[in-house]
């Protein structure tokens, strides 16, 4: 028996919201999380609902929505904000910006089965990156993953726990536009296992960010163009060996850019890809059919120029996304330990004119 209807949630950097969509139709249902207008009146007070740069979003084991907040343009570190998964009510800072271990530039997050929140902190030029660990109940800082065995630049962007129970981390170089890697760690011990994927002339991996394992067991990674003679794309690697298998070009050389910071599998094994860039597709969400090596897509959420509600879509989650593996659980049979996030009347509801 297929699970009841689900919802898709997407962080929008253009207005610092988390927007809600019907997971089957793409219909826009409103913003579950909005920026507190008081945050625009003066200096941000630590602990307040001031979302300046939503990045990674997941539902935790208590069905609350956790959102990494980069505090773009603010003087303080980033943090992780906590919201009621049904109403969007602000529940406070889960990871506090003014305490030791606060992330400088948080991006992707996952919540392990061992009750640890992993946050990719990219750092900056001259600011070391880290994968930070926090207690999943209290938000207390537990330490950083030990990446001393990796000799390259360590600026992590996203994380996911793979089918082998290891933590996969996408890392980029700074300030270089080319290159990048995917590393593996033991999430229980924090031990560095090794480099799983390294950029080369064959795979053209550049500035990797979002990464997710598909129903086919392969690893899908967002990658960005090296220069004007390249394309923005999704790269596909063998999930066990890391061998480069294929790519999905998101744009064409010489045409307006269409790139993705993150990606996620959803209902019916489809791959959902929010699009940014400088072209007419910006703000759209593409839904790819990758079964049997297909690369076809339909426009699940229309772009901003066509009246779509998203201006700068970043990370995304479904209500039935596993917070550790990022697998979609909604196509499985219903069981008592499944969780659903179905706000029947989302706050700040939109008109039907914005539905797809």
Description of the molecule:
This protein is mainly β and 356 residues long. The protein has a single domain (7-354), classed as Neuraminidase, CATH 2.120.10. It is built from no helices and 26 strands. The strands form 7 sheets. Strands 3-2-1-26 form a 4-stranded antiparallel β-sheet, with no helix packed on it. A hairpin with a 4-residue loop joins strand 4 and strand 5 (64-69). The protein is globular, with a radius of gyration of 19 Å. Mean pLDDT is 91; it is low at 333-356. InterPro entries: WD40/YVTN_repeat-like_dom_sf. This is SMP-30/Gluconolactonase/LRE-like region domain-containing protein. It comes from Neobacillus massiliamazoniensis.
């Amino acid at each position: 028996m297929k699970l009841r209807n689900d919802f898709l949630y997407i962080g929008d950097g253009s207005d610092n919201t988390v927007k809600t969509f019907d997971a089957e139709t793409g219909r826009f249902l409103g913003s579950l999380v909005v920026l507190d207008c008081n945050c625009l009146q003066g200096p941000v007070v630590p602990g307040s609902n001031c979302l300046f740069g939503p990045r990674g979003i997941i539902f935790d084991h208590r069905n609350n929505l956790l959102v990494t907040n980069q505090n773009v343009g603010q003087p303080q570190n980033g943090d992780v904000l906590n919201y009621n998964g049904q109403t969007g009510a602000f529940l406070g800072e889960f990871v506090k910006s003014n305490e030791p271990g606060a992330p400088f530039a948080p991006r992707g997050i996952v919540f392990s089965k061992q009750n640890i929140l992993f946050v990719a902190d990219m750092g900056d030029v001259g600011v070391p990156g880290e994968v930070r660990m926090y207690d999943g109940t209290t938000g207390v800082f537990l330490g950083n993953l030990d990446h001393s065995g990796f000799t390259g630049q360590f600026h992590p962007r996203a994380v996911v726990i793979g089918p082998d129970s290891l933590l996969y981390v996408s890392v980029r170089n700074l300030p270089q536009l080319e290159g990048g890697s995917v590393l593996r760690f033991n999430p229980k011990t924090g031990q560095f296992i090794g480099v799983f994927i390294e950029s080369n002339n064959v795979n053209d991996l550049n500035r990797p960010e979002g990464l997710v394992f598909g129903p086919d067991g392969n690893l899908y990674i967002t990658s960005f163009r090296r220069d004007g003679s390249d394309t923005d794309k999704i790269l596909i690697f063998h999930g066990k060996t890391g061998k480069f298998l294929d790519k999905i070009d998101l744009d064409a050389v010489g045409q307006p850019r269409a790139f993705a910071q993150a990606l996620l599998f959803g209902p019916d094994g489809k791959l959902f890809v929010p699009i940014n860039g400088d072209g007419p597709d910006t703000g759209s969400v593409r839904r790819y059919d990758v079964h049997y090596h297909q690369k076809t897509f339909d426009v699940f959420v229309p772009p901003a120029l066509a009246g779509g509600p998203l201006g700068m879509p970043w990370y995304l989650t479904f209500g039935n996304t596993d917070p550790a593996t990022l697998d979609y659980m909604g196509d499985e049979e219903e069981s008592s330990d499944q969780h659903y996030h179905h706000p029947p009347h989302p706050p700040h509801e939109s008109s039907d004119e914005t539905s797809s």
